[in-house]
Amino acid sequence: MEIRKTLGTVLTLALILVLAACGGGGKEKQTASGGDTPSSSNASPASPDASPVTPAESSDAQLEGDFEIQYFVGGYGDAWWKDVIAQFQELHPNLKIKQSAGPKINEQMKPRWIQGSPPDVVYIDGAGSNPRQMIEDDQLLDLSDWIGQATNVDGEKILDVMIAQPEQYGGKTYNIPLVFGSYGTFYDKALFAKNGWEAPSTYEEFLTLSEKIKAAGISPYIHTGVYPDYILGGFLYPAIISANGDDGQILQDMGDMKEGVFASEPVMKALNQLAETGSKGFIDQGAPALNHTDSQMLFLQRKAAMIPNGLWLESEMKNDAPADFEYGFVPSVTQSAGGKYVALPYTSTMAVAKKAKNPEAAKAFIQFIFTKQASLNWAEKTGALMNVKVDLESSSAGETAKNAMKYYSSDNTLVAPVVVFNADVFKVMCDATVALSVNKITPEQWAERVEAAAAKARK
Q1: Can you give the pLDDT at residue 383?
Q2: What is the pLDDT of residue 297?
Q3: Distance between start and end Cα atoms, the chain
Q4: What is the pLDDT of residue 57?
Q5: pLDDT for the residue numbered 61
Q6: pLDDT at residue 50 in the model
Q7: pTM of the full predicted structure?
Q8: 426: which of 62, 421, 437, 447 fits an S-S bond (Cβ 3.0–4.6 Å)?
Q9: pLDDT of residue 408
Q10: pLDDT tens digits, one per residue of 419-442
Q11: CA angle at residue 102 from 111 to 87, to 5 degrees?
């Protein structure tokens, strides 16, 4: 898989974020991209096995006219889309629905967006997609007032059932997160059980456990140095938020490049945690040169016990994991006793075109898909999480998805805000973080470098 929800210019968690075989993605952008599932950009037939739907007794049942949906097809495939669209079609028989989809759909549809003849609703994901650019180009409808009151077809307020809230652009909402993922720390339950190790719930427990793992001749912690998003989302950003009293506002301040924030007390505390982890020999010294596949293979071979990564990991490495490997997951390992877990998210979003010809149908479609049943369906068909809280225990979703959802549905887990960083500042932050992880620079030097980049960007 190429990149995941880069927490940089396009952080959207991140924690985006990811997903190509990991969900959708490429390693140089904010939302997931990549994948090679074939699909046509023409209208697609309804799924033959779509679940039956009873038409709702509402004015929405009178929707009619042409209605076009654009969605990227990557590692998540298109089975879920065909299913829910078929159900929506049955609910609204007078609509003439066209599906414009495929792995290259963003490139194929770009001329229409530029010419002012876009589809009605769009799933923003994959190579060539950038929600911020679409907003800056005035291509998306302002949904602020509508989403504030909108309910799904089950009568639940959409904002209330979401795991991660929509990102704000100048105080307004233009796109709504559909896919939810987060970075976190993965471990092998089988390896831990064999050695009598417990997954850490605090930073002190993480250090104590790492000492035991190191004594057993295994690298405690490995990361993907070529793509620093992983250690930023899985370790550093959660550490910063924990050090800020579980207040995610500091991450937004960093995204806004507020003067002095990169050398603030919470940031310095988190940097010192990363430096301490490295100085104690807990971070694999070869990590800076590793790409995602290399680091993940070493983890699966049990040459490293823990790895910061995204929720796509199990799906992406399904053909490489040993038969007795059991994925364990915790959102963060840097919180103090009594502090909350911190999940750094990445998301892929839905939006309505500003020049949509059928905006009523577009909004109704969003209300139709943001339900617990659709979320359950997504988890079972993709192995990933939709941005709606739902109990997955009795479902056929993967263990990683089930474990992660337990955390995201808990009051003891804080879901950090999705933040977009200036590209130049993010590049400096990435390089400095990798260097700090193996003690080539100090926390103070990290802060100086990133603050200098931010000062330059502010000018």
Answers
A1: 78
A2: 97
A3: 36
A4: 37
A5: 55
A6: 38
A7: 0.74
A8: 421
A9: 87
A10: 878 889 999 999 999 999 999 999
A11: 110
Domains, the chain, ranges and CATH? 59-181+346-415 (3.40.190.10), 183-342+421-458 (3.40.190.10)
Phi-psi region of 126 (alpha: psi -120 to 50; beta: other; left: phi over 0): left
pLDDT the model gives residue 225: 95
Can you give the three-state secondary structure of the chain, one letter per residue?
CCCCCCCCCCCCCCCCCCCCCCCCCCCCCCCCCCCCCCCCCCCCCCCCCCCCCCCCCCHHHHCCEEEEEEEECCCCCCHHHHHHHHHHHHHCCCEEEEEEEECCHHHHHHHHHHHCCCCCEEEECCCCCCHHHHHHCCCECCCHHHHHHCECCCCCEHHHHECCCCCCECCECCEEEEEEEEEEEEEEHHHHHHHCCCCCCCHHHHHHHHHHHHHCCCEEECCCCCCCHHHHHHHHHHHHHHHCCCCCHHHHHHHCCCCCHHHCHHHHHHHHHHHHHHHCCCECCCHHHCCHHHHHHHHHCCCEEEEEEECCHHHHCCCCCCCCCCEEEECCCCCCCCCCEEEEEEEEEEEEECCCCCHHHHHHHHHHHCCHHHHHHHHHHHCCEECECCCCCCCCCCHHHHHHHHHHCCCCEEECCCCCCCHHHHHHHHHHHHHHHCCCCCHHHHHHHHHHHHHHHHC
Residue with tokens 């050398």: 263
- Please identify every stretch of the chain with a pLDDT value under 50, giving residue numbers as ranges: 1-60
Q: What is the pLDDT of residue 357?
A: 98
Residue 181 confidence (pLDDT): 84
Residue 119 corresponds to which amino acid? P
Cβ(11)–Cβ(346) below 8 Å:
yes
Residue 48 burial (C-beta neighbours within 10 Å; 0-12, 13-18, 19+): exposed
* Predicted local confidence at residue 399, as pLDDT: 80
How is residue 224 written in tokens?
């993907």
Structure token digits, residue 395: 């479902």
